[in-house]
Amino acid sequence: MKKEKLDDLAIFGGTPAFREKLHVGRPNLGNRERFLERVNQILDGRWLTNNGPFVQEFERRIADTVGAKHCIATCNATIALGITIRALGVRGEAIVPSFTAIATPHSLDWLGVRPVFCDIERRTHNMDASHVEELITPYTTAIAAVHLWGRPCAIDELSDIARRRKLKLIFDASHAFGCSYRTRMIGTFGNAEIFSFHATKYLNSFEGGAIVTNDDDLAVRVRLMRNYGFAGYDDVVSTGTNGKMTEVAAAMGLTSLESIGEFIDVNYRNYVRYKLNLADFPGISMLSYDENEKCNYQYIILEIDDSASKINRNQIQNILWAENVLARRYFYPGCHRMAPYRSRQPALRLPHTEELANQVLNLPNGTTVDVESIDVICNILKFAIARGDEINHRIKDSSRSVPIPDR
What we know:
The structure is a single chain. By secondary structure, the chain is of the alpha/beta class. It has two domains: 6-27 and 260-327 and 364-398, Aspartate Aminotransferase, domain 1 (Alpha-Beta Complex), CATH 3.90.1150; 32-258, Type I PLP-dependent aspartate aminotransferase-like (Major domain) (Aspartate Aminotransferase, domain 2). 39% of the residues lie in helices and 14% in strands. It has helices at 32-45, 53-66, 77-87, 103-110, 129-135, 155-165, 216-226, 247-258, 260-278, 306-309, 313-322, 341-344, 351-357, 371-386, 388-398; strands at 22-23, 70-74, 93-97, 114-118, 140-146, 168-172, 180-181, 184-185, 192-196, 209-213, 284-286, 300-304, 325-326, 360-363. The strands form four sheets. A seven-stranded mixed β-sheet has the order 2-10-9-6-5-3-4, sandwiched between helices. Helix 4 links the parallel strand 3 (93-97) and strand 4. It is globular, with a radius of gyration of 22 Å.
């Protein structure tokens, strides 16, 4: 449905462009019949968890895909981060970007490690390695970097800093499964890398994560910690927790892996369509990917420049939500401005993080989004920005907004 006048916008009483809500990160599904075959095998074998055959197969497949020696599957990526932090002996302080999911600093804080927030590079959205160097103190024991949007962070620079300063280096690669850096797959850098297979990721295991590493000793410690420290039937040799992935989650992960090529192809098709629609449009810049590297193309990220568009990111988000396009702002307002961290360093300012947190908008992608829907979304965006000044005044006058959706 084309929007030609302001009253056509749903936020002003018009008919929403979409009858059903278009979500960011709506799950991709592989072959249903193949998944159900695996579920029946699980039920027939009555091996539901505790390192079953599907978990072991999933670990082998992930390790083979990224070229890592070891993969340890977990119930989710947050637990994977926590186990890795504990297994590496991280303590004191760890430097982490603020422009990331709250799970990254929370995993540190939960274990008594103080997150020290680092600013990002404005161009890449990733951790600023030069700022990392400035933040190192005698209490720093680790760097916890993030490959945001699946685009690798400054791996070489961070590896050099970690080596020179004798720090552990962990990469939160939750966005980056299937991506590469200088033709080498993400999952083979630092002391360890962490993948997420949450339902919102392009490749999911319902809920799940994995620790990948080339460090034999670390892999042994992580496997012990994932299962309460059990080294045998009743032999507990270390402190641990319950971080195990279930068999049904692994079955979903294996089924997803069988369709990974299709998922990436659809993401790339959608990425190209968005890029074509929004090319050179004032007020909008779309994040691009290096097509010489492997990439999953999951995230369609816009930066909204309100000085050019006369309408800000939050107003555009409200307009899209009213049209049933549930675009998301990531990672507002920055972890350093979230509880409990904002009360610990109330004067902390990270200018690039704060600027992007007010500009970034993530649009729907994946197998539930087709090119026709993308054309409609982009037409709404362009109409809203072209009429931004009028819309801005009308929204302010009416104080109209739409509620945040339940999911």
